[in-house]
Design goal:
The structure is a single chain. The protein is globular and about 75 Å long. Strand 12, helix 17 and strand 13 form a beta-alpha-beta unit. Helix 7 runs antiparallel to helix 16. Among the domains are: 214 residues, 3-Layer(aba) Sandwich (Rossmann fold), CATH 3.40.50; 116 residues, Sandwich (Immunoglobulin-like), CATH 2.60.40.10. With 765 residues, the protein is of the alpha/beta class. A six-stranded mixed sheet has the order 11-16-15-14-12-13, sandwiched between helices. Strands 18-26-25-20-21 form a five-stranded mixed sheet. A three-stranded parallel sheet has the order 2-3-4, covered by helices on one side.
Length: 765
């Protein structure tokens, strides 16, 4: 250990008697941490304190030359609290060595990374993960990510993203859990547990960072970084819940969002960061900005960098990512009296506490084991877990004539621009992915049939007709454009199709169609791909569409014309094998949508838990109804609703009942429904329960998800699923933002998705 901090750390350990650091779990441990940090801060200059609040980018670090880099020199000077997105234990160890052995006080660094849905073993994109409705699998995905990232020296991940979004035009919907706050909250908790494990005691547990606080998923027009404006009633009841759940689960850090909240950028919004996050929710970790957000305050039309930095710090933001406002302007503000020393000290303490809780003062090289990096990354066990999880996320939207699953025999045509690209399988925000290790879908198909069938391949079309647009959606080395003409590629595809018994069309988005700064105004299949699909359907052969997407897409035409559609999202590093597992029937699909799929873009936002309006359309009459809230051309409801997904087997719901119809303030009602597998295959079903508050002091949604259970049933097997309803499940934030359950009439609903539901009444006394 660095001799500069060994005295402080040793003193702390002698008192605690602990061999490993942990999040302080009691008053005595917290007192030891406070004493340690107080003594350390007493030795720090103002420049060193501001350095702890500075999170610059890493630049390109070459092993053995880190000290000569811009970041290395800044670390040695005590001007850096952490950095991010360095890949490789050796590089990170060297940078940590500079921090603890060459800086004056030897304070270790936080080393972050965008480990959003895996390190080298990449799991499905978070939106896809949510479609598994499997909290254990989601937690394990974060656990694998933590094990691998920590083996490479990373101790902090900028995940989970828990933003609720109901606008699929927004590309970052790919990073979240969809439209529902209850499901999103369960997933947020699972992700935090997976990353942080047992209170960060071990070297394979890393800090989570909940993002983006707050409301980022409600950007106007689905355009990234755009304005957000909503009532506090909607904030508390529809958007805040997943953030709060993650905080309650013990998330160690929170990242502010780019957008305005009540006209003030989130990064300097004192009501949001100090009042809501810290005072109402008792968050005791640290708050970091998103990339450059303090520097963007002036662009929003507010104050310049010095004033924005002072306001952000005062609001409770502790660490500045890449704006260099804290390190560049706060000292001058201190001299002018616009910044208080106690406010700086507060932020510094929070950063140092995080490092203490990670055990970095005890062992700065806790995460820098080069040997572990070679044995704990992209292991067979991790890959098997990712493959099994991916198969749970695919959503079977349509299967006319039971085309799926396909038999492993005859000739199978695999056609489409997504059929032979490895780099696009992991999906967006796969920062540490090694594309050279991953299979293409074509390779997966060939391995799956193992000579029992013949795979005939043709690309068929490019992703986009416009080369410039395709270049824009092929970022980060994922270019796959074919120089041949559309006519040439189509001719090749039709020759292949003519020989085949069945056609599998791998189409949809490229991975970077979605993600940050990837907003779309048109969500239909790109025109060149649609022309390919029309030609394939015209052959008269059975056609299966594998729809790759990072968001709900518009599939009204496909739903009318394509007999079988499997939405495969972006399934991660093991996507190719997982897709073949489902296509060939080795795994029965069980995924269900967590974001509604619209008929068209004009319907957006469309989501299940909407308000009724004063003139609702009569659902019994599908025709247009004058003087009702409806469209001329399409239904109000989505094409494919929240919770929807088919299986290769069939499930029957029956005997929906309540054990009583009146709920006391301290009592409970049990709702029960029996589910039976009436098909000839074993399968998993996701049983869903919803509640409606019929008459409240404020308008309430037509239904809200309150419970779900994933069950496995053999053919002919039945199971009764129970939902224990308590007054707590009926609470909401009223006009005064009091969290209350109001007496009155309620409805409880049960079924396989948000549309196909049985309903029973009960009252709360």
């Amino acid at each position: 250990m660095n001799k500069k901090i060994i005295g402080l750390a040793a003193a702390s350990l002698l008192v605690s008697g602990a061999a490993s650091a942990a999040i302080p779990a009691n008053d005595a441990e917290k007192a030891r941490m406070d004493a340690f940090i107080t003594e350390l801060m007493g030795k720090m200059t103002i420049d060193e304190k501001l350095g702890q609040l500075n999170l610059p980018p890493s630049d390109d670090i070459v092993t053995g030359q880190a000290i000569d880099s811009n970041i290395g020199a800044a670390v040695a000077a005590g001007k850096v609290g952490g950095t991010f997105n360095i890949k490789g234990a050796a590089k990170i160890r060297e940078l940590q060595r500079i921090a603890v052995e060459e800086s004056r006080l030897g304070i270790p660094l936080l080393l972050g990374m965008d480990v959003i849905h895996g390190y080298e073993t990449v799991f499905p994109i978070p939106l896809a993960l949510s479609c598994s409705w499997d909290m254990d699998a989601i937690e394990r995905s974060a656990r694998v990510a933590a094990v691998e990232a920590s083996a490479a020296g990373v101790n902090w991940t900028f995940s989970p993203m828990v933003d609720i979004s109901r606008d699929p035009r927004w590309g970052r919907m790919a990073e979240g859990a969809g439209e529902d706050p209850y499901l999103g909250s369960q997933i947020a908790r699972a992700m935090v547990r997976g990353y942080q494990g047992d209170n960060l005691r071990n070297n394979d547990e890393i800090m989570a960072c909940v993002k983006h606080f707050a409301l980022y998923g409600a950007s106007e027009a689905g355009r990234d970084y755009n304005t957000v404006d909503m009532s506090r009633y909607r904030m508390y009841n529809e958007y805040f819940e997943p953030y709060r759940a993650a905080v309650d689960e013990g998330a160690a850090s929170v990242m502010t969002s780019f957008n305005l909240v009540d006209g003030i950028p989130a990064t300097e919004n004192k009501w949001l960061v100090d009042d809501v996050l810290r005072r109402q929710w008792n968050f005791d970790g640290f708050v970091v900005t998103d990339y450059g957000s303090i520097g963007e305050v002036a662009v929003h039309g507010l104050e310049k960098l010095p004033e924005a930095s002072a306001r952000a710090l005062d609001a409770g933001t502790d660490m500045d990512m890449c704006s260099f406002g804290f390190i560049g302007t706060l000292k001058e503000g201190l001299d002018k009296g616009t910044v208080k020393m106690e406010t700086i000290d507060r932020a510094v303490r929070r950063i140092l506490e995080a490092k203490y809780k990670l055990g970095l003062f005890e062992n700065p090289y806790k995460y820098n084991d080069v040997k572990r990096e070679k044995t704990h990354i992209y292991t067979p066990g991790h890959r098997a877990e990712a493959r099994a999880t991916a198969a749970k996320t695919f959503v079977l939207l349509k299967n006319d004539g039971k085309i799926l699953p396909i038999a492993k025999k005859g000739k199978i045509a695999l056609v489409g621009p997504m059929a032979n690209t490895a780099a696009n399988m992991p999906g967006t925000w796969s920062v540490a992915a090694d594309f050279s290790k991953y299979k293409t879908l074509r390779q997966g198909f060939e391995d799956a049939v193992k000579g029992r069938a013949e795979i005939l391949y043709a690309k068929g079309s490019n992703i986009e007709e416009d080369p410039a647009l395709e270049a824009a959606v092929s970022a980060f080395g994922r270019d796959m454009r074919d120089s041949r003409s559309e006519a040439e590629m189509l001719e090749e595809a039709l020759k292949v199709a003519a020989e085949a018994d069945v056609i599998v069309a791998a189409m949809g988005e490229a991975s970077e169609h979605s993600g940050e700064s990837s907003s779309r105004s048109v969500l239909t299949l790109p025109a060149t791909q649609k022309r390919l699909m029309e030609a394939l359907l015209a052959t008269g052969k059975p056609v299966v569409m594998l729809n790759f997407s990072g968001r709900p897409t518009v599939m009204e035409w496909e739903s009318r014309n394509v007999p079988a559609i499997l939405n495969v999202w972006f399934g991660g590093s093991e996507a190719a094998d997982a897709i073949t597992d489902v296509v060939f029937g080795d795994v029965n699909p069980s995924g269900k949508l967590t974001a509604s799929m619209p008929y068209n873009e004009g319907q957006i936002p469309v989501y299940y838990n909407h308000f009724n309006t004063g003139r609702p359309k009569n659902p019994a009459n599908p025709a247009y109804q004058k003087f009702s809230s409806n469209y001329f051309e399409i239904p109000n409801k989505p094409l494919y609703p929240f919770g929807y997904g088919l299986s290769y087997t069939d499930f029957e719901y029956s005997d929906f009942r309540l054990d009583k119809d009146t709920l006391g303030k301290d009592g409970a009602i049990t709702a029960s429904v029996t589910v039976r597998n009436t098909g000839d295959r074993s399968g998993d079903e996701i049983v869903q329960f919803y509640i409606r508050d019929v008459a409240g002091s404020m308008a309430r949604p037509v239904k809200e998800l309150k419970h779900f259970e994933r069950i496995s049933l053999a053919p002919g097997e039945s199971r009764t699923v129970n939902f224990r309803i308590t007054p707590e499940a009926l609470k909401f934030y009223n006009y005064n933002l009091d969290f209350v359950a109001e007496p009155g009439e309620f409805r409880v609903m049960a079924g396989p998705d948000s549309e196909r539901l049985s309903e029973l009444p009960f009252t709360l006394d």
